[in-house]
Design a protein that fits this description.
The protein is an alpha+beta fold and 679 residues long. It has 25 helices and 20 strands.
């Protein structure tokens, strides 16, 4: 017989940005706990609101299945003496099992007969196991900042307030985070009836709804989105999925309202208005049909007010001072040219050992201009953008609205009369800011962005501050991936050697760069795996002669090998390369092939095929063509292994054959290490 199980942990307000992750971790942890303890179950749904984490488990088994354990004892000829009486070995084994010798069974194998103890173990009831399982699962939930409350040393994300555990209509007795389980849940702080008894587990969602709580965060997101679209009317919603998820985590009964602000603030850059509304107040911005911002916003209230106009008025009073601050900062900042602020960066510390942002700016300028000529960027534009790229860090606007760094630099540059190209490069030099975010549009912006990231990597690795575990305060993982993405997505002909040599020179050559190169190559490996490229393909491409230097060249290898491995020719080439690699790994090979020492026709044929392939590969257009040429050597390789004894008794003949295989492998390594490819 199966049951429905409800678990609800009530808390003080949980951090909204972590709510979805906590819910998913609770579901995953409890699912694993049930599976590890052989408790059968159906669908497990997780629920989360600002004040609760909950689970509903369908079709939960009433108990674990019964099991039978077996324990083998001594051999029978050791367990009994010649008269058939139990020896100490038999008596001791029986005593350790808690039975008499006569109660033991026997087991026959091809190696003899043994005493055997069998024990039937009835499965434990679910309601006995659930409290301890949940205590363990909840104990593993956490965030960077945990809290304690009361006089205990108990820690959780936020102080616990109540606990519900029901198996159908029966309370599951237990205590978690200092609270005894019951059937009483709590509703909306202001709209609900306060508390309610849950009669049976399946009533949970409806009971909460009657208490003005929408239990499912995804349902709340859907409700909010539908209301947003309706409230926008003829305007268009400035879509922000992250904000939608956050406000869904902040509310239990969401209601969308529309407010307005004075049109005078539309003179400010759009990003200032959007930051004030979305980042600071959690409002949604609106755009007119022509794409310009509308002097309105949409807010998410956590209650269905009887007087919504007062709620709207209150929020309008809140947003106006924020926008007025932005207007004041804009007017004050534009009194000073961006170029005059560069010297002020000398008082702003980037990192204690690596100096100020003014010093960093000079390094970025050196690196960016060094890279510019190789990618066709305008050196004057690149140098100017690099010089000004960090100057907005000392403006009042960016000090207050920190998410606008770079963006405001671009606006201030335009205001000062700098070229559009310089302004765009400044605006975009922090890109990409995260997974899926765009890379810079302009080549000059790419140079400044790469320079900024390369400077961080070389400098911080150089002073012994690489990322460790989850600690990455300077975002070096993001910086490394940013370099990779910019070069590959914009198809820039830059090698890793060029980039980090320029960065090393900017640091006066005081830091070695090999550790940075190794780290970036490791990030590149994850970049491909995250995009669905098999690990063996990545290993094969990275194993090419010369390793990884040109990212574009490596990318071409990866794409060609990914396609090649799926073909019959690819599978055959991988198998023969494994065989060659295994043979060569166990021996030392001669440096050259001597045709006079060939004894078999298959040796001569393979040598001729190698020479022909080498000549054709030099003029091949791409790696796909090279692989096709190398695949043409397969029949010769097959005949070589069929007709030739590689490890001949004659040392000279053996070494010559090994050298021939070495030359074949070297040819394959011009594309990649095909021995890494899996079938």
């Amino acid at each position: 017989m199966s049951h429905t199980f409800l678990f609800e942990l009530g808390t003080e307000e949980l951090p909204p940005l972590q709510l979805r992750g906590l819910r998913d971790a609770l579901v995953a942890g409890f699912t694993n706990a049930l599976d590890d303890n052989a408790l059968g179950h159906g669908d497990i749904r997780g629920y989360a609101t600002p004040r609760r984490l909950a689970l509903l488990v369908n079709d939960l088994a009433a108990a674990q299945p019964d099991t039978q354990s077996e324990r083998r004892g001594p051999k029978v000829d050791v367990a009994f003496d010649a008269a058939g009486n139990p020896t100490k070995a038999a008596s001791g084994f029986a005593a350790s099992c808690g039975v008499d010798v006569a109660d033991l069974d026997r087991m026959k194998t091809d190696k003899g007969e043994w005493l055997l103890f069998r024990e039937d173990r009835p499965g434990r009831q679910s309601k006995e196991l659930l409290p301890s399982l949940l205590r363990e699962v909840v104990g593993k939930l956490g965030t960077e900042r945990m809290m304690r409350w009361g006089s205990t040393r108990t820690e959780f994300v936020r102080p616990a307030q109540w606990l519900v555990m029901l198996l159908d209509d029966e309370i599951v007795e237990g205590n978690i985070l200092g609270h005894a389980s019951g059937r009483t849940t709590r509703g909306h702080r202001f709209m609900g009836a306060g508390t309610a008894e849950i009669s049976i587990a399946n009533d949970y969602i409806e009971v909460l709804r009657q208490l003005k709580v929408v239990a499912d965060q995804d349902d709340r997101s859907d409700i909010i989105e539908a209301q947003l679209l309706k409230a926008a009317g003829d305007d268009q919603l400035n879509e922000n999925p992250a904000l939608l998820d956050e406000v869904a985590a902040l509310t239990e009964w969401p209601v969308v309202l529309r407010g307005d602000f004075p049109a005078q603030f539309l003179e400010l850059p759009d990003e200032v208005l959007i930051s004030a509304m979305e980042k600071h107040q959690r409002y949604f911005a609106l755009r007119r049909a022509d794409g310009s911002l509308a002097p309105s916003f949409l807010m998410i209230a956590n209650l269905d007010s009887s007087n919504p106009s007062q709620v709207i008025l209150g929020n309008e009073r809140v947003i106006r001072p924020r926008l007025a601050d932005g207007e004041f900062f804009w007017n004050a900042d534009t009194q000073t040219r961006l170029s005059d602020r560069v010297s002020q960066l000398g008082s702003l510390v980037f990192q204690a050992t690596l100096g100020s942002y003014e010093q960093k700016t000079r390094r970025i300028q050196h690196i960016a201009t060094a890279l510019a000529s190789g990618v066709g960027a305008d050196k004057t534009t690149t140098a100017r953008a690099a010089e000004l790229c960090k100057a907005d860090l000392v403006t009042d606007m960016v000090i207050e609205f920190t998410d606008l760094q770079g963006i405001m630099g671009g606006h201030y540059a335009r205001h000062d009369g700098e070229s559009q190209a310089v302004a765009e490069a400044i605006t975009q030099h922090y890109r990409p800011t995260g997974a899926g975010s765009p890379v810079p549009d302009s080549i000059e912006g790419c140079c400044v962005a790469i320079a900024d990231k390369a400077d961080n990597l070389v400098g911080l690795f150089g002073i012994g501050e690489p990322p460790t575990g989850s600690r990455d305060p300077f975002g070096l993982r993001r910086a490394a991936l940013g370099v990779v993405r910019i070069v590959l997505e914009r198809e820039l002909p830059l090698s890793l050697g060029e980039i980090f040599e320029a960065a090393s020179t900017a640091h006066d050559g005081q830091f070695e760069t090999q550790s940075v190169l190794d780290y970036l190559i490791d990030r590149l490996r994850y970049y491909y795996v995250d995009r669905g490229i098999a690990v063996d393909v990545v290993n094969a491409a990275f194993g090419a002669a010369g390793g990884v230097n040109s990212l574009l060249d490596t990318d071409a290898r990866v794409q060609a090998l990914d396609q090649f491995r799926q073909s019959a020719a690819g599978k055959a080439a991988a198998a023969s390369n494994k065989r060659v690699a295994n043979i060569l790994s166990r021996t030392e090979t001669a440096s050259t092939v001597n045709a006079d020492r060939f004894e078999e026709a298959a040796e001569r044929e393979l040598s001729a095929q190698i020479d022909e392939a080498r000549s054709r590969i030099e003029s091949a257009n791409d790696y796909r063509e090279r692989l096709a040429i190398l695949a043409g050597m397969q029949p010769a390789l097959d005949r070589f292994f069929e007709d030739v004894m590689v490890m001949a008794d004659d040392d000279a003949v053996r070494d010559n054959r090994l050298a021939l295989l070495q030359s074949a492998r070297a040819l394959f390594l011009t594309v990649g290490d095909l021995s890494e490819l899996q079938g």
